Amino acid sequence: MNFDPPLVPGRLERRYKRFLADVTLADGSTITAHCPNTGSMLGVAEPGQRVWLAHRPSPTRKYAYAWELTELAAGTLVGVNTHLSNALVREAIVAGAIPALSGYAEIQAEARYGKEGSRIDLLLKSPDRPDCYVEVKNVTAAVQDGIALFPDAVSERGTKHLRELMGVVAEGRRAVLVFCVQRGDVREVRPADGIDPAYGRTLREALSSGVEAIACGADLTPGAVRLSHLLPVVCP
Questions:
Q1: Residue 236 lies in a domain
Q2: Under a CB-based contact definition with an 8 Å cutoff, are residues 235 and 193 in contact?
Q3: DSSP-H helix ranges across the chain
Q4: Of 2, 10, 63, 116, which cross-links 34 as Cys (Cβ 3.0–4.6 Å)?
Q5: CA separation (Å) from 94 to 82, 87, 107, 131?
Q6: In degrees rounded to 5, what are phi and psi of residue 22?
Q7: What are phi and psi of 177, to 5 degrees?
Q8: Among 51, 79, 107, which residue terminates a domain?
Q9: Does residue 165 belong to any structural domain of this protein?
Q10: Nearest CA to 216 among 87, 76, 52?
Q11: Three-state DSSP class for residue 145
């Protein structure tokens, strides 16, 4: 996925009210940008960090800038826009970059399913196999040694989605959880048991019941982001 127009660099002053961030641009002006991430943004929303913004002025947009990337001290780029994750996974499936999800004839988005009134991110369909329900989770938090963590805050919604995926498997269909890891310094993904122990317990239950988990790592530049490689999902 290419960033078009090219992203604009700046320096983060603060993130506040979940959806807003003040950023100082290269010319010294400070603007307010939309923050397309409702999580805690653990480690990727520190004042002084270099950030990259999309600039798309429009009469229908309240904020002309939107925060897309954070650059860490080591130079690693992290994609913070959770709205991109579904499109990135879909793009990777179509490109054959996720072999376990290849071979389906049709991809539907936001189909209703489950006993708790959910919508699945991607529904893969083919006449010769059971439907495959794909739930996508964006991952930005990481700790030392290249270990990424999900979630970065308590996520009752995420736990609900795991229950729904278990229901899919119980009905004889396929359910896959895909972690979309938008950072280039990660070697594996783990549940963030210290942040949301209920999610960790439910993830382990889901995996033991037949729900599949796949993690996809990304290559990021200020010009583009693409899911390029698979990562192990580790539940010690």
A1: no
A2: no
A3: 85-95, 156-170, 197-209
A4: 63
A5: 20, 11, 9, 16
A6: -95, 130
A7: -100, 125
A8: 79
A9: yes
A10: 87
A11: helix
Q: Tens digit of pLDDT for each residue in 33-72?
A: 999 998 899 999 999 999 999 999 999 989 999 999 999 9
The DSSP-derived string for 75-111 is S-EEE--GGGHHHHHHHHHHHT-SGGG-S-SEEEEEE
Q: Nearest CA to 213 among 183, 182, 191, 184?
A: 191
Domain count along the chain: 2
Q: Is the separation of the CB atoms in 101 and 132 below 8 Å?
A: yes
Residue 1 lies in a domain: no
Q: Are 152 and 195 in contact (CB under 8 A)?
A: yes
Residue-range definition of the domain harbouring residue 90: 82-231
Those residues with Cβ within 8 angstroms of residue 161's Cβ, 6 or more apart along the chain or in another chain: 118, 135, 177
175-215 pLDDT, tens digit each: 999 999 999 899 999 999 999 999 999 999 999 999 999 99
Q: Are residues 122 and 70 in the same domain?
A: no
Strands 20-25 and 30-34, by their bridges, are antiparallel
Count of residues making up the chain: 236
Nearest to 141 by CA among 159, 156, 154, 128: 154
**Which region holds residue 43: left if phi is over 0, alpha if psi is between -120 and 50, else beta?**
left
Instruction: Say how many CA atoms lie within 13 Å of 206 toward its Cβ.
Output: 27
Given CA atoms 97, 99, 100, 105 in this order, what sign does their dihedral have? positive
Tell me how far apart the alpha carbons of residues 86 and 186 are, in angstroms, rounded to a whole number.
Answer: 19
